[in-house]
Amino acid sequence: MHLDPSSDEFTMVNLCPACFGSDLCPQFYHGDISLIGISKLKYLKGSKNVFSGKLSSNRVILKRLAHDWEITNLDKLLCDKANLKPCKVNEAVGFLIGNSIDTPNEYHLMNLIKTFESSTDVIQCPSERLLTYLFNQLNVKRNSIDFQMMQFSKLGELLYSLLLNPEAVILQAFPQAEGWPFPQYYGSCGRVIVEEYVGKTITYFEDSTWEQRIDIAYQLLLIAQILTENASDFALYMTDVNMDNFAVRRDGTILLIDVENIVIVDRLNIKNGTFLAILVYFS
Description:
This protein is α+β, with helices and mostly antiparallel strands.
């Protein structure tokens, strides 16, 4: 049996805002996105829900960014935190966000995040500036008549992403178009994101020419420098460095293709002497 990428069963868009977003849903519904190869087969999906596909003529990767059991566990955690019975996870997220709002236009993101014991690396060193930056970046391309409702939905998507897997947030907050060494992010529909297919991982280049291996090594050093020395005053540190997390484009460019395991440090907090205070607060 084949998977239908346009179906709600595949995208789970009905669970938003406990999702990654919905900006790419029209392309899913209109048939612009298709699965290719064994990704089309319902019972041969990858263990971490990674699918090969096409967006129009462009080859892409579709991801749910977690194993099924991880998704189920997070849904249960959100329902337990909301203490709703019976519980729908989208309603649970709405309830939790509502409780984090002091005034209609004031969102205390730190208060929302600190109620969870998250295992994701991205919020191990949180700051209000970082969370606000991530939230604002999610809203950059949004157009909505009801601005307050849009913010409410984006808060839910930010919360869900940071707790499950921050890759979608990181790709939007630190986009390739601004020089970051990540794949292009096309968008999301429900619990599925779509990003650029870069190419083969650098594992395949172990026996390449000496010149090509030197170039790969040099680019990896540049990536490390870009992630830590940049104009945003956020330092991104990889915590899972292996050859399968980097891929090579046809033009030879190296990109980091798995950005789940990244710690983001607000360097302004360090400069202002507040970093240690935050660590104590969250310990």
